[in-house]
Every structure is written in structure tokens, then in C-alpha cells.
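Schema walkthrough. Field components (list of strings):
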Amino acid sequence: MAKTSKKTATPRKSARSADVHDVPSAVKGAKPHKNLKERGTPLIEMRDISIAFGGIKAVDHAGVDLYPGEVVGLLGHNGAGKSTLIKVLSGAYKRDAGQIFINGQEVTINNPRDAKALGIETIYQTLALADNVDAAANLYLGRELKTPFGTLDDVAMEAECRNVMHRLNPNFRRFKEPVSRLSGGQRQSVAIARAIHFNARILIMDEPTAALGPAETAQVGELIKQLKAEGIGIFLISHDLHDVFDLADRVTVMKNGKVVGTARTSDVTHDEVLGMIIAGKSPPGAIPGPGAMREAA
Amino acid sequence: MALDANSSESPALVQEGAVARFFRATEIDTRMLGMIAAILVVWCIFDIWSGTKIANEGLFGGSFLTPRNLWTLLVQTASIAIMATGMVLVIVMRHIDLSVGSLLTLVATISAVLQVQHLGPALGVGHWSIWILATVAALSVGVFVGACNGYMIAYLGIPSFIVTLGGLIAYGRGIGFYISEGVTIAPLDKTFKIVGGGVPESWLGPFWSWVLAVIACAAIAYAVYSGRKQRLRFNFPLRPMWAELLITGLASATVLGATHIVNSYPWPPKLIEQFALANQITIPPGVENRDGTGVCMAADKVVRCVDGLIFYTGYPVPVLIALAVGLVMTFIATRTLFGRYVYAIGGNPEAAELAGINTKLMTVKVFALMGFLAAVSAIVASARLDAATVSLGDLNELYVIAAAVIGGTSLAGGLGTIYGAMLGALLMQSIASGMQLLNLPSAWQNIVVGSVLVVAVFVDQIYRRRVK
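Field assembly_structure (string):
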């Protein structure tokens, strides 16, 4: 079997005591979950994250949180900072400021390997598969199983791959072919299998359905529901409002690097969310963030 | 799971013809089959063609399909084939190495200068340690220069084309020329020369060649058997029994056939005579015969005759080295983490990086491996020539790249096999030496080799489109 992933995060310090007091009061608004808190400690809490590229603040004191078995949609224009924020979580970018907590404990994520060790897996828009090797090789890329002689144990990897794929996509048969020959949906299942196979607790999906047809999109939707039922928390980055309303429990909207607001999908309408994305206007059903347009002021 | 296995991988199975079913069942790489067919066709054409000029003992009455010519062909192919195995990995990783020929010259020069001008005078000519020191020095230089290339490409971000183009200009005719001062360095150490295949000590002889062949057949059978056992263990679809037996049979027949051919090539009469004199073997009496390949005593004179004393060469060392390199490189490419990463990086460098693969270090390693193989080729080539010259590796880089590309390596990266590149090297060498055999003008030889490269890639692209 796969190597057992680390169940325990690497805690820097017990953050719980410092939780309330150390945070500067000026940015308390960046913690929209406070009012939604009904399920205890969030699985992931990103607090007050900032990152700048050459003077441009791509992400500016932004915060999101995610509970087990929950799907949170991250919405916003191109360049709103949602992808950048999430890349901080997946380790692709290093944050300039801010903290990340997993189950209430602060963690350090400096590269993709750190994130993986903490059970954070990312499915990229481009799927990030090695096109010329087969499903099993992709599933285990970077974490290959080896025989006692130190050589690749292809047979064991293929056997395990057949198990995993059977669970995700029972119709999948093309185990011997390079993934470049697979359909978009099949490739997506390989990418998802790769993400969840190593005991992921947090899944980041960046535009998971962007390249897919309607049937395949529905398939991915089913998959997301299945993963939710298994208690995995999912960040869903998407342009497609319908997708997000179908799949997400909550949405967080970003604009110009700041959080406009966070809302349950059941509390807001499509139009209200559009208003958040376009105008930065936080509707009554949402908890406004620092990026919300201040009508009162 | 069992259901999955039986319903097989493709729903289109029913509509397939007998030929397609045959290839699916045997899992034979049709591309490889095409290359082997091309090589056989080229061989037959040259044999028939040369037969129309001067009749000889070849299969079709020519002089190409004779043990002597095929044996020589294998020896000539060795040096390019060795480097082609490394070039496959370089190209698979979306790089190119233009410096291998130049590096070959440099390495050969350094090892020759070391043997002739330094170790020989210091330790005494023919000292037992000379060949070891020269070999170690050669391999170290190759690895070091290759790693330097890789470092500049990976960490300094200079494109591989440029780095190795610089190497092409600077290594052989630059540094190498500087070290050798432009003169041919010869003769090399006696033991070192064995690697070249030009002396009797470098021929395995019929007995050991057969032993090797039998071992190879046993290994093939075992590989097929253990593969089947593994598939059974995990309940994977199996090849039909007849297909397994057919593959084992074909592979073994190839090994035995090749062994028979190399075991039919006799030593040159002059060497037989020398060997007999040196080892006090009595040369039998006989009648002189111009066609004979043995030697016998006609009165007091040693002459050529049919039924005289005769030795057969068996496998020459450079061919064994090339085969060993091919096996090891295939193992590296398909069975190790290193190989898997090379192909993954070639398929999608970004995905490989995101999967936590250190792509920069991998680049350095692959170029260092390429440098190592160029050094092995340098040893083989200089030992064969018994000298190091400034032009030893000229144009080799292009033949190596051509061999890899003809063998199915995609310049876009991600695709390529070791055996394909070795077959590609054999095909190119077959065409080149066939034309030399026919005594065609060298201008024509260049035109044909160049055209073959382009046509081969064109045919390959058509093939790939159809497969897709």
C-alpha cells in the first residue's frame, strides 16, 4: 500500500491561546468565519495572508476557512487573487505575511512537498499529469512504490491504481495507455485519484471542469459529492457560478486581492454573488470582508 | 476486478482483424517490428546489389549478408549505438546534446595522451595498471564534462542547444587539440586495445559465445515466465500462452542466429598463423587454396587453405559492451525511479516539478550519464583505431541524434526507447557500410544517409498519426 501519510501536522506552536489576542484588531474583519462558527475548529484557516509581486498586492490581508466535508467556492475575476491565495496554501507561492492553521494548529508551508505532507493536495487547471506515461505512473508520480531491490514495482502500482480508479470511475479500463490518449473526464479522474489516494484531507481544485464536456462535468460533480461524504474539505476555484452553486456549501468572493465577503450558497442569490464579484458589494446574506464596498461609510 | 480483466482494455476488440488481434495478443511493438523489417530489407537489397557486381558467399550471392560483413557491421555500430542510448534520455527530457562527438574526441585524446606520454614512460610500457587508470580517467572526464553541461543548462538556464553547441566547438578541436597538439596519439596500451575488437584477445570465441547465447535464452524465458507470474498474482489480463511461447521462441532464435553468424566469421589467416606460432600449435599440412580462410603448411610455407587450421571469432568485446549498455540503459529507463522521472519530465515538466521531482538535478544527472556514455564510446572508438586523432568523433553527434530519432525518439520530448535508438544506429550503419561495400561515391553516401533520416521521421509521423 501507499506510504501512510502523516496524520499529525507539524505544529509550530500551539496557536489556540494566541488565537484571539495576537491578531491586530484592525484586521479582525478578515475573519468572516467568526459569525458562522458552529462546527468547532475549522480544518483549514488561512488568516491575514498577504503576498505581493513587485509592489502589486496580489493578495492583501485575505482570509478563508474550510470545515471537514465542506466545499468552499472561491470566486472572483481574473486577477482577483483567488488562485494566488490558494497557491500559498498548496505551497507554490510563499506568503509575505499571515498564518495558516490546520485543525487549529499553525503550520509552515514553504513548498509543494510541505503541503503534501500536511494532506493538502491540489488539482491544477492544467491537470498536471505527465502525458506520456500511464495512469498508474501518474498516480504514483513522485511517490513511486519500489521492490525490495529498489526498482519500480509497476505491477503493485498498477494493481493499486486499478483499485482506486475502480472506486472513482468504475468504467475506467485504459490502464496501459499513456494518459494523453484518455478523455478529459478520464484524465480528471486520474488527477483526482492522484490527489486523494495519499490520504488527502484538503483538496484544492482549480477550475476542475474548465476543460470538460457536460457529461464529464457531471461526473466530476458526483466525485466531489463522494469526497465530501468522506469528510474531505474542498476549495473549489471556478468561474462558473452554476458549478459553484451546485457544489459549494459556501462561497468566498475576492476582488483586487481582498475578500469581499463570505456567504452560504443557500443565503444568497446568483445575482447577489455576481454583485460581489463585479462591484464588490456585500449582500445582507453575506459576512462582509475588508474588500467589501463601504456603502455605510 | 476479474471482470475488468476479462473484458480487456478496449471495446473495439471485436472489430479488429486477425493481424491487429495478433499484435494485441503478443503485445509486440509494431514500430520495432517495422524497424527490424526495414533493416532486413536494406540488408537484402545490398546483398543482391553487391552480388550483381561480384558474386560472393552472401545469402543472395552478394557480399553483404556474409558473417564477415555482418560481424564488422556490428563492431562499427557499437560506438554510435552506445551513445544513442544516452541521447534517447536527453531528447526525452526535451534537451539535445550536440557535444557528444566532440566530447568523444576530447576523452579519447586525454586517455591516449595519458597512456602514451605519461603512464607508459612512468610505469613502463605495457604495465598492467595502465588500462585501468586510462579507463577511469576517461570515464571521469566524460562524467565531469557532461555534468558541467547539465549544470549550465539546469542552473544557469542556458538552452541545451547553445551549451552543447559551444561544447561541440570547444571540446574536441579546442581542448583536445590543445592537449594533443594536433598530432595522432598512438599506439595505445595492449590491454586497452581489447575493448576495440581489433585484436584476437577481444574475441570471445565460439565456445563462450554459445555459453553466452544459452544464458541469454534462459534469461529471456525467465523474464517471460516471471512477467506472467506477476500478472497472475495481481489478476491482470494475461497474454495467451501461444503468444508467450512465440515471443520466447522468436527472441531465442534471434540470439542463437546472431551467435551462429558471429561464430562463422574466421580469424584472418595472418593472425591464425601468428597465434599458432606463438602458442606452438602445429599447422597441419594442406593444399593452397585462394578461397580458404584457414592456414596450412604447403611444403615449408604457410598458405591459405580450406581445410587448414581455423579459428572463429565469436562475439567481439565492443559489441558485448554495446549490448550490455543497451540492457543496463533499458533497465534504467523502464525499471528505476530515475528513468520514470526522465520520462515524466519529458511528458510534462511542470507536472513533474509539482509532483516534487527535482528537475534541475535530474537534468544534471542525465547529461552526466550522457557524458559517461560518450566516454565509453571514446574508449571503444580509440581502442578500435588504436589511436586518438582530432577527427575521431567528427559528426558523431549528428549520427547519434539521427539514430535516436530514426529509432522513434520524439524531439518534442517524452517519447523514445533505448532499443529503438540502437536499431536506428544499426540501420544507419547498415546503409552507410552497404554503400561503402558497393563503392558508391561518398557524395552519394551522404545524400542517401541524409535522406533516410528525413524519410524515416516522416514515415514515423504518419505511423503515429494512424495509431492515434
